């Protein structure tokens, strides 16, 4: 019954749930049967002759049903003590025993691949070359049986059938084509699906929010092979390695690979997991219950919205949201969009003293003096809720924040370049300290600075005993970083904490880490339109370039050819902002006031990438010999994070 594709999975769950609750023995019998079916299907999936798509879907479907029935059974565990992984042999833990055969096969396949990878460093992902090498040496056609894991394994205990995945069985099926296939490419998806099933079974035996120690040990053991799979086919992350989102320890091992995936793919993965388990695919809809409608007053929209959202059920707000203005009949997505648009403007309303405008005049930063508003922390929490709700429901907000604030949302450390958004001159001073030898200058700086504390200037140590520690050539980098953290983080830590408390009610920290600060801005505020003609009109040239030079002509042709997203990346790369201020490129601000977009010539050397000085909106463009090379190098810089930012 569990393999009948015509039966809906939810219906199967309900039927099996009902049957399993008749008695303890019936419950255990159903679970054992499901485990045996899953094991058989898993071995079929590992057989290279089977239909991957059909077997993968069948295995994961059965495992989902198995885990559901296990969780809802009599006296479901709350602490994992009776799950069997601590040595206790309870009846409930024994239902997993048939699956151990599948996990053993999985482990042997991964060890097999790891062994061959270690032996062949020069071609670390191509087992085909190994097979061909063996063929030349032995004058025999290779087979996968050459890679059979040592020991008898547990295959003999499996019931006979076409799905047996023992390597020597596969050899007969695959011998004719083994010498022309990359075994990793063939097996990676199959093994990854079984890994997903293993994770699901481990997780259902643990309390909510806790990752199975057994699974963590498994991933650590096979770390190199799993990374090899992902490098070969990054989509495996999105298809099967869902465990990365639920375990920070494991996610950190793969984060560099995850962030290298296309922005579009990460967005799809983000929303797939954000909305997993939610019954309604139409995110912004009218709730059935009239009590769930957010009834707000237009003339006091900020305060009334804050009050009603703070009392609303978060789970229901995640599933859907409907807004009605008091005294008005209108409802629907248009009203919801208007509500978000008005609130995003109100969040930065100076009357609430929550945010201050940054030096560039287009972005906002939390106000370190927001305490003048007695309710400021409640309002920051509400601001976090609004941005979290907007992101949850794919609604754009009409507000842009400083790069450092996006970093705070993502948990990314700030650096001294971020200071330029609130104090360009101070940022220049920090840059000067880093760039120059301060040994004999007599600056007499210590690890303490004078700063505003609740309206009064006080000496604040950057670290314990900082007032008596001199800044030297050897420790100046630490000084610059600590000063940056004081100005950009410690000064507004309560505000940041309150904001994140509200934001994380709707957006889990592990999910938002999929993005960098530039991508988060695009997710929250959308893609701004860029007028290329206005850009050209308000650009200056220096260090030898002139408007008529071939390199400049090629540059603007490339700008016109690339996508709108890539133009935004270019604008961010050079100015630090994805937005053009009101009035166009003529009003772009630099560190000392109005500063046009500028392109400076740099001598060409092979493979040299463009860099930028964000403080003065300058693109340092090498004198490339052709348009093709210019475009290639520019796109590499934009997409691969060659953020050669410098302070003028």
From TrEMBL:
Instruction: Please give the residue ranges the record annotates as the region Disordered.
Output: 137-172
GO cellular component, as recorded: Golgi membrane; nucleus
The Swiss-Prot or TrEMBL record annotates one GO molecular function as: ubiquitin protein ligase activity
Q: Which PROSITE patterns match?
A: HECT (PS50237)
- Describe the location of the HECT domain by residue ranges: 313-648
Q: What class of enzyme is it?
A: transferase
Query: Where are the catalytic residues?
Result: 615 (glycyl thioester intermediate)
Q: Which residues cross the membrane?
A: none
Entry EC number(s) = 2.3.2.26
Q: Which domain of life is it from?
A: Eukaryota
Alphabetically list the UniProt keywords: ANK repeat, Cytoplasm, Membrane, Repeat, Transferase, Ubl conjugation, Ubl conjugation pathway
Pathway where this protein functions:
Protein modification; protein ubiquitination
Coarse class of the primary localization is cytoplasm
Subcellular localization: Cytoplasm; Endomembrane system
Its UniProt entry gives the catalysed reaction(s) as:
S-ubiquitinyl-[E2 ubiquitin-conjugating enzyme]-L-cysteine + [acceptor protein]-L-lysine = [E2 ubiquitin-conjugating enzyme]-L-cysteine + N(6)-ubiquitinyl-[acceptor protein]-L-lysine
Descriptive protein name: HECT-type E3 ubiquitin transferase
Organism lineage reads as: Eukaryota, Metazoa, Chordata, Craniata, Vertebrata
What gene is it encoded by? Hace1
């Amino acid at each position: 019954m569990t393999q009948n594709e015509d039966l809906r999975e939810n219906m199967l769950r309900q039927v099996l749930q009902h049957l399993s609750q008749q008695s303890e023995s019936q419950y255990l019998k159903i679970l054992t049967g499901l485990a045996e079916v899953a094991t058989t299907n898993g071995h079929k999936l590992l057989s290279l002759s089977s239909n991957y798509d059909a077997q993968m879907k069948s295995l994961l479907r059965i495992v989902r049903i198995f885990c559901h029935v296990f969780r809802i059974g009599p006296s479901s565990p709350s602490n994992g003590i009776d799950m069997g992984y601590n040595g206790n042999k309870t009846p409930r833990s024994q239902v997993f025993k048939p699956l151990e055969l599948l996990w053993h096969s999985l482990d042997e396949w991964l060890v097999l691949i790891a062994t061959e990878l270690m032996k062949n460093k020069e071609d670390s992902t191509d087992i085909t070359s190994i097979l061909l090498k063996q063929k030349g040496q032995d004058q025999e056609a290779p087979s996968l049986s050459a890679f059979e894991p040592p020991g008898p394994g547990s295959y003999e205990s499996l019931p006979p059938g076409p799905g047996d995945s023992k390597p020597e069985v596969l050899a007969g099926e695959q011998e004719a084509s083994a010498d022309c296939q990359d075994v990793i490419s063939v097996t990676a998806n199959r093994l990854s699906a079984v890994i997903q099933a293993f994770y699901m079974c481990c997780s259902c035996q643990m309390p909510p929010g806790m990752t199975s120690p057994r699974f963590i040990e498994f991933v650590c053991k096979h770390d190199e092979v799993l990374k090899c799979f992902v490098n070969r086919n990054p989509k495996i992350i999105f298809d099967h390695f869902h465990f990365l989102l639920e375990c920070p320890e494991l996610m950190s091992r793969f984060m560099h690979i995850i962030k290298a995936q296309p922005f579009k793919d990460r967005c799809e993965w983000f929303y797939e997991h954000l909305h997993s388990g939610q019954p309604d695919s139409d995110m912004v809809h009218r709730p059935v219950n009239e009590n769930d409608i957010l009834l707000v007053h237009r003339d006091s929209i900020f305060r009334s919205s804050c009050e009603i959202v703070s009392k609303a059920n978060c789970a229901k707000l995640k599933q859907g949201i409907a807004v009605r203005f008091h005294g008005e009949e209108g409802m629907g997505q248009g009203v919801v969009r208007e509500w978000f648009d008005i609130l995003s403007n109100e969040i930065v309303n100076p009357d609430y003293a929550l945010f201050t405008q940054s030096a560039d005049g287009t972005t906002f930063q939390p106000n370190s003096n927001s305490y003048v508003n007695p309710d400021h922390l409640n309002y920051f929490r509400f601001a976090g809720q609004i941005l979290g709700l907007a992101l949850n429901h794919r609604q754009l907000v009409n507000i842009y924040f400083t790069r450092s604030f996006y970093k705070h949302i993502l948990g990314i450390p700030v650096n001294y370049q971020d200071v330029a958004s609130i104090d360009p001159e101070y940022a220049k001073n920090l840059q000067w300290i880093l760039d120059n030898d301060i040994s004999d200058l007599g600056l007499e700086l210590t690890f303490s600075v004078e700063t505003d504390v609740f309206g009064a200037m006080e000496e604040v140590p950057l670290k314990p005993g900082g007032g008596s520690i001199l800044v030297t050539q050897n420790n100046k980098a630490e000084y610059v970083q600590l000063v940056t953290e004081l100005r950009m983080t410690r000064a507004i830590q309560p505000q940041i904490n309150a904001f994140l408390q509200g934001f994380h009610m709707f957006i889990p920290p592990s999910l938002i880490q999929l993005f960098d600060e530039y991508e988060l801005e695009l997710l929250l505020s959308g893609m701004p339109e860029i007028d290329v003609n206005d850009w050209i009109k308000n650009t200056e040239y220096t260090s030898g370039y002139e408007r008529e030079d071939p390199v400049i002509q090629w540059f603007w042709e490339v700008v016109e050819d690339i996508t709108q997203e890539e133009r935004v990346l270019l604008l961010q790369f050079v100015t630090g902002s994805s937005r053009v201020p009101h009035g166009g490129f003529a009003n772009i601000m630099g560190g000392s006031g109005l500063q046009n977009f500028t392109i400076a010539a740099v001598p060409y050397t092979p493979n040299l990438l463009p860099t930028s000085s964000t403080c003065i909106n300058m693109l340092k463009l090498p004198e490339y010999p052709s348009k093709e090379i210019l475009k290639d190098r520019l796109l590499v810089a934009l997409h691969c994070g060659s953020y050669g930012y410098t302070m003028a």
